[in-house]
Design goal:
binds flavin mononucleotide, four-stranded antiparallel beta sheet, 230 residues, NADH Oxidase
Length: 230
């Protein structure tokens, strides 16, 4: 594969939040996990476990938990200045669009794999290597899904304080495993609008950080407001 094809794949990947109910072939799910299996992880610890969920009732229970957990967040968001409020997180609760997606893949990690790191890392880096490894696998899954013509959504609410313990109970996840995030996959029902991506020149510093380009607080606030517009 050449760089152009790779970049096309990267640019094609979007967060899809509306799915057709059409089933996804099991072979595609296997191919997505096959890619994730080769993701980099600290000391090659490969902390991941993948739970593939296709059962309608289970998916509905997960969506209901996510909706319920979202409620305090919705109340909290109005405490912010209006132009900084996260889109879609205030006003009446809505069921997550991902509910209709045919497959959820919940990514879990086994923290005991941290023993694979050098002791210095284990003692000094907290969870950062563990989380980075899981994030790598997750990202590989999103790219594999895109390459297979599928849409995907990164659902991080599964790691939240209400969903996490109840999901462990619902899915028989051993107490010692950590739930990371959940990838929802399916055929795209509607394409997202264009996205705002920072300019390359704005973020590259040669040899040392160019302090003249360190954004002040006003610029950072304007940037967040700009992000909100999509
Ligand atoms: C750590 C992380 C958590 C995310 N959590 C969610 C989520 O819970 N729900 C969601 O719809 N998108 C989630 N996203 C997706 C981002 O909102 C999305 O990547 C970003 O807005 C850029 O849009 P794009 O993916 O279409 O390029 C998450 C992404 C990351 C990396």
């Amino acid at each position: 594969m050449d760089y152009e094809a790779f970049l096309r794949l990267v640019k094609t990947r979007r967060s899809i939040r509306s799915f057709k109910p059409d089933p996804v072939p099991d072979a595609y799910v296997d191919q997505i996990i096959e890619a994730a299996r080769f993701a980099p992880s600290g000391a090659n610890s490969q902390p991941w476990e993948f739970i593939v969920i296709k059962d309608k009732e289970t998916k509905e229970k997960i969506a209901a938990l996510v909706t319920e957990q979202g409620e305090p967040g919705r109340k909290l968001e109005v405490a912010r200045e209006e132009d900084l409020r996260f889109p879609g997180t205030h006003g009446p609760a809505r069921e997550p669009g991902f509910k209709s997606a045919p497959v959820f893949i919940l990514l879990c990690g086994d923290p005991r794999t941290k023993e694979a790191y050098p002791l210095f890392t284990t003692l000094t880096r907290g969870d950062s290597h563990f989380i980075s490894g899981l994030a790598s696998a997750f990202l590989y899954m999103t790219l594999a899904a895109t390459a297979l013509g599928l849409g995907s959504q990164w659902v991080s609410a599964t790691g939240g304080p209400l969903v996490k313990p109840l999901l462990k109970q619902l899915l028989d996840i051993p107490h010692g495993l950590e739930i990371y995030d959940m990838l929802v996959i399916g055929y795209t029902a509607s394409q997202p609008a264009g996205r705002f991506v920072r300019e390359r020149a704005e973020m590259i510093h040669h040899e040392r950080f160019d302090k003249a380009r360190y954004r002040n607080d006003k610029e950072m606030r304007d940037y967040i407001v700009r992000l909100r517009k999509g």
